[in-house]
């Protein structure tokens, strides 16, 4: 499969779209076609894409000539019409607004413009493929490929098919991200569910975090310190089940649940059942106070470098 | 404070106790007195402690002569009576059984044996200081110092006072773990609550993880992959509030909650409300299948080295 050239059409080049473009361009068997409705699209792309393409060891992250050279070599094509963008696609991937009407109508248009064999991927974090595919003639070709920000660095891709999506289309997406040497880790989710898996886990933890701040058990900043000083590095090294399997001593997670099941049930039964509306004010106030309300490009760049370092440590085999 | 010599008595030298001994011995201003009721205590200590003391770059992790040299230099004293172990303590720290009757009676005995100024720290993960201090004459001296496994590597210490604990005792514990150059990060929790903060956050995520496995949305192994490929490395770099502050774009976590509050509330309202008993069978079966039921010393050692590497990346300032 890695010898086949894939032609990927990206619709919607906001932050996630730019990062997705960088992900696809980092492979040697791709041609990327990009389309966005913003009037200054080409200028914006030329200005913005380079910082996503730069090597992790670059000092500045800025290579202004790189887009021009990708265009002249034919690796990157900038389109001002959806029709030309989709005409030769192997894969069409959208990162448009999170709005069901938009998704349904864009896929209907794409279906009329792209080759009949093309795969349709949506980067949505919230709108299931089964809802998006309603106006398609061929409902078997659409599935969710949900990345985590920023996708050109973060390994996870949640592949979430609708019941009508064909298994071959699911396998194609999984294989696309599984080529040897890729740092990406596609995982197929077996049922459509709000938030898929990654965000459900994040939101479950966040709800309790908001509850503890709301109840003055801990400040937002101290809670972040707790997470970074314990669970973050633990779960960067091993998942939650593997951690309890190994932390439980003899007998693994079964023994752990036998020993601590009472405490765990007490905590589960007492978890905060808060609403977004009731926790928002205090959480926003404490978070703004702790971190300020803006982040510089330089800081963002250094954070991304650190994320790459974590992932390098993570993939050290033993 | 770092020039004062602290004399720490450790009661209970299981895995956590051994790791705690290594933590205290890694500092240059400590004398450590150890006491445990197991009949082969001294042999066990000589055999077990070295692997906790070894340098992270050691090939084997085994330095059998090290305990003897610590003993002969006076840094480590092995006791066969609680009375001699406590006689000169600045701090008495217990890692005994998680049993309220045991905790109450050991503290009563310790109070009769230790200097009146000594600080009493319990490493409990589940029994509040206010419950443990019931039989003490001076209830102001006891507080929880809850480590995360393994404490000689993992930075977090949750300091959880009872309402009757004196603020000076809390500040002493916080300062003890805050000396310049220490990798440890003490955090004071403002209210006693089951599971404190770290385990509440872990258990909140674990409950949803168990629910998703129980409902066949994802396998235990795939869920672990999802966590390692997204939230683990993210939260190793920044806490949950800081991550949303910066991932929310302009306007930070406030804008994020405005934009995604509907989806988040839908996920919050739909989180699994499962019991330990109903999820246990499938979770244990899938976890055993994915990881086996035992872990070799060598693998454990390599995992610890990787954890140290994550923490090294984490403390790179920017």
How would you explain this protein's 3D organization?
2 copies of one chain form a homodimer. Chain A is an alpha/beta fold and 318 residues long. Chain A has 2 domains: 6-188, Rossmann fold (3-Layer(aba) Sandwich); 198-314, Orthogonal Bundle (N-(1-d-carboxylethyl)-l-norvaline Dehydrogenase, domain 2), CATH 1.10.1040.10. The first copy, chain A, is 49% helix and 13% strand. The first copy, chain A, is built from 15 helices and 8 strands. An 8-stranded mixed β-sheet of chain A has the order 3-2-1-4-5-6-7-8. In chain A, helix 9 crosses helix 14 and helix 12 (240-247) packs across helix 13. Chain A starts with 5 loop residues before the first strand and ends with a helix. The mean pLDDT of chain A is 93.
Keywords:
homodimer, 318 residues, alpha/beta, Rossmann fold, N-(1-d-carboxylethyl)-l-norvaline Dehydrogenase, domain 2, 2 domains, 8 strands
Map the helices and strands:
The structure is a homodimer of 318-residue chains.
Chain A (H helix, E strand, L loop, with lengths): L5 E6 L3 H11 L4 E6 L5 H8 L1 H4 L12 H7 L3 E4 L2 H5 L4 E4 L5 H14 L5 E4 L6 H4 L9 E6 L8 E6 L5 H10 L8 E4 L9 H17 L5 H9 L2 H7 L2 H8 L4 H19 L5 H16 L5 H18 L4
């Amino acid at each position: 499969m890695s010898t086949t050239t894939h032609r990927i059409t990206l619709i919607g080049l906001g932050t996630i779209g730019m990062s997705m473009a960088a992900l696809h361009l980092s492979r040697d068997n791709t041609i990327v076609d990009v389309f966005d409705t913003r009037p200054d699209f080409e200028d914006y792309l030329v200005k913005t894409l380079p910082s996503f393409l730069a090597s992790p060891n670059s000092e500045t992250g800025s290579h202004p000539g790189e887009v021009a050279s990708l265009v002249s070599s034919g690796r990157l094509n900038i389109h001002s019409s959806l029709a030309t963008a989709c005409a030769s696609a192997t894969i069409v991937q959208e990162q448009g607004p999170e709005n069901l009407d938009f998704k349904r109508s864009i896929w209907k248009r794409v279906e009329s413009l792209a080759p009949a064999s093309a795969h349709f991927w949506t980067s949505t974090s919230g709108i299931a493929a089964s809802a998006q595919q309603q106006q398609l003639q061929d409902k078997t070709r659409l599935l969710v490929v949900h990345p985590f920000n920023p996708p050109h660095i973060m390994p996870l891709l949640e592949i979430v098919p609708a019941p009508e999506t064909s298994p071959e289309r699911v396998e194609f997406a999984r294989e696309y991200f599984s080529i040897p040497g890729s740092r990406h880790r596609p995982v197929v989710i077996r049922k459509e569910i709000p938030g898929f898996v990654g965000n459900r886990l994040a939101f479950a933890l966040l709800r309790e975090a908001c509850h503890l701040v709301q109840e003055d058990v801990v400040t937002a900043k101290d809670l972040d310190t707790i997470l970074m000083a314990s669970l973050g590095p633990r779960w960067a090294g091993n998942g939650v089940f593997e951690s309890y399997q190994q932390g439980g001593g003899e007998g693994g997670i079964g023994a752990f649940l036998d020993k601590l099941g009472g405490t765990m049930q007490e905590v589960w039964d007492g978890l905060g059942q808060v609403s977004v509306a009731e926790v928002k004010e205090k959480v926003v106030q404490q978070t703004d106070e702790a971190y300020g309300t803006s982040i510089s490009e330089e800081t963002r760049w250094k954070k991304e470098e650190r994320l790459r370092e974590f992932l390098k440590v993570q993939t050290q085999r033993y």
